[in-house]
Write the structure tokens for this entry.
Amino acid sequence: KTPCPDLEFNVISNLMIDTTRFKNQIYKIKNLVARRKLKRFDLTASIDCFGDEQEYVRYGLNLDTWKTNFEFLANEKWIVLHINQTFSGLTIKTSADMLAWVFRFRKDDREIGHYFSTTVMTYDFLHPGIFGPGFFDKDFESMYHTMSDQGWYKHSFNYLDGIQKSINSMPRDQEKISQLIVYLDEIDRRRNTNWKKTFPWLEQEANHVV
């Protein structure tokens, strides 16, 4: 009813919506853009990693639904599409898998922006730096390798390198690792989940904590 022909409208979403309903909403926005009632529509999809790890970290997220909705968005090339990814101690190890999957949709005529962050807005024991220097180096190498053939992402190498150096500047913190284990144990009690099955590498670290 009130056209905004100069408005660039951005929505940030975890894509947890029924696909049919989601498509209907997107097509309504497409109609607004086509009729020049909006200048542009951006969608920033939140995702941190892949697999069971992602569904544990973002409890309530169904990765199959996320993938289906994201693939739909990627094929709607009129949408300016981005990924927003937050690193925590629980998300780094499957980040390369997520990047590889997203890159399937990046083509000459389809750019997908990507933003990285290490901001942990809840508890400091979720920060990846608590595991000490070098702990995630192999995982970062996997990300660099996955990104190496992607033109746009080459510009992200320095930023990702800065995140890695920041993580590696922190000493290992046994107390915070212990706090993380207590936190996950309580989550499992409430949700009837099993973090040891989802993060087997972390169980090994837990055994090192006195």
